[in-house]
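re: ur question from earlier - yeah i can do the single chain one, its not a big deal. heres the input i used so u can compare w yours
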Amino acid sequence: MGNGMAGTRLVEQLRALDPSGARVSITVIGDEPHPAYNRVLLSNVLTGGIGPEQTRMRSGGWRPGDGVTVRTGVRATGIDVAARSLTLDGGHPPVEYDELVLTTGSAPNLPRIDGAYRDDGAPAHGVTTFRTLDDCAAIAAAAHPGARIVIVGAGLLGLEAARGVLMRGAAVTLVHPQDYPMDRQLDRDGGAVLARIVRGLGAELVVGRRAAEFVRGDDRAGHALLLDDGTRVATDLLILAAGTVPRTELARSAGITAADGIVVDDTLRTSAPHVWAAGDCCEHDGVVYGLVQPAWEQTAVLAARLCGARDTVYSGSTQVTRLKAHDIDLVAMGRVDVGGHDQVHEVLTLADPARGRYAKAVVRAGRLVGALSVGNPGVAGAFTQLFDSNGPVPQDRMSLLIGHAPPGVDTAGTDAGPESVVCRCNSVTRGRIAEAWRNGARSDEAVARATRAGTGCGGCRGVVGTLCEGWNMHGQSGIHDSGADRDDRTGAKGDAA
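and the output i got, formated as tokens:
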């Protein structure tokens, strides 16, 4: 249930394990009318960098022999756990199942704003969310040169929406209730640097204020947003980008345990027999991730389980957040809410606010447990590699903050070991990319088709392209001569795959 990113990924993984459909036949039900698409790429659609068709997760669809039935534009209204059936709207007959997987994703968080919603709870005329392809189309239509756009929320979604609208020539005002943008991922100093960057790109940023009331205008006067201090902000479109919430209503109505998300155990089982959950809708060990990589890791475990594995478990994921907005390079991971004089952690910071740069590393017991980087792509690469590998940080801690990586850590990701992750969105290692290159994938586009690297947020496409260029120049030996495929434990050359 759910034809989004997690649901589609699960089907792909099931078919990789069971190509002929001998063990599992699959029915996918989704309430959106579109084929499955990558929501992470919506910000690129909004900027005009790609078209909607380029967001599709399976451009060719499923063939009749694949044993996969996809039903779009159909909403599930209930689960009968005892009868193992799913009821649907629109007069469609119930669908029976042996195993039901809930990949219902998340929905936009709708902040309390008087006048912003219709009687049925949907956004009123002149108001939209930023969650779907249809939302993108509505925003693009309104964001013409000279238009005034107000965005509620300066987190990831709000900033991505703002950058897209600015690139279309519209004026943007961001309204955020906290004292700095992306307050869930950044510390105060990092947030202050990000605020300077956002304002420098041409957006107006109003922090510490809440949206109170949406006043609908007419074709002459336009609309307005009233803030909690009485300020009136004129707008032609109000975008609600105040985060997301897991879609749990279907599970709750069936008596399935849900807290913030649908609660699952280490096998991704819910409290109901034969019902599982994965992706943005689920909560594991008290955590709702809401990120692509954890969803991929969850669906890999679930696919193995559904195909008969008994010892595969999900033990949680690391969280690395990357802002996907043109001209803003930002990565945050782990614990960053630690003060500089903490008695347990080593905390290092380096700030260059005038040039939009800030870096922070949080170290405990010689390992990187938290970091953030604004405007430092090389530093971000070293942070991510150390955080993913849980490797030791260098004795000269400050070298991390100025881009001098320790031995064995490559800031660009082009000279790392075969198990280092290049594409976090799809968990593609450097070894898999090397294998694809050996099999004839000699460009970033070809590697993307072979491994899906670069088809998530797109942040790794440059690294993949650089790897391919180097290998194309030096041939097979170039993979090994870099030392990237050396087995660090033995000092011997290893297989990049």
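The longest helix spans residues 292-306. not sure if urs matches, ping me
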